[in-house]
Amino acid sequence: MQLSSAFLPILFLFSLVSAHNVLLPANGKRCFFENLKKNDELAVSFQFGNRDVRSTLQLTGDFWITSPKGTIIKSLKEVSHGDVSVKASDAGKYGYCFSNEMASIDTKDVSFNIHGVVYVDVTDPSNDSLDAAVRRLSILTQEVKNEQSYIVVRERTHRNTAESTNERVKWWSIFQLIVVAGNCIFQIVYLKRFFEVKTLL
């Protein structure tokens, strides 16, 4: 199964599931490849079986996943079934193989399902899918909400500062008024005494 690049801009997390059943050759292996982009996830669940209806043996085999560079990322040895998932650290062709190399049985088969989780970068401006647009809108809405919260806190702080300043100005003005009134009363009393006519006996 090849993941088409046309699926990438469709959904943010869109699961692709495909079931397969293949016959493994005697002393051979079967490999499949997926083109993944960075942060895509590839999950494989599998079960080894026997096409011979008269057989009652539980057959086993090997399984591994390789990176685009050919190195083995994960592997399982002599298992009858498994469920393995990897996250693509780099873009490229990832391979997964089922091996019957250690046995000459020619009726061994494997049933497997591929679960691909496609990652879509919502910050990519070239991505014009509806889901990406919704995600971008959600991010912008969260940014506006954070900005509003910051503005509310800032407005509260500035209001408290202004009210404190107004309170100080009020009391300073009252103090100045008392000083001016006291000065006026003092001057009136002083001048009144200065111009008083004193009689000599």
From TrEMBL:
The chain crosses the membrane at residues 171-191. Keywords: Membrane, Signal, Transmembrane, Transmembrane helix. Residues 29-116 form the GOLD domain. It is found in: Endomembrane system; Membrane. Residues 1-19 form the signal peptide. It holds the Pfam family EMP24_GP25L. One of its GO terms (cellular component) is membrane. SMART domains: EMP24_GP25L. It is a single-pass membrane protein; Single-pass type I membrane protein. GO terms for biological process: endoplasmic reticulum to Golgi vesicle-mediated transport. The keyword Transmembrane helix applies. Its main location: membrane. Belongs to the EMP24/GP25L family. This is GOLD domain-containing protein. It comes from Wickerhamomyces pijperi. The lineage of its organism: Eukaryota, Fungi, Dikarya, Ascomycota, Saccharomycotina.
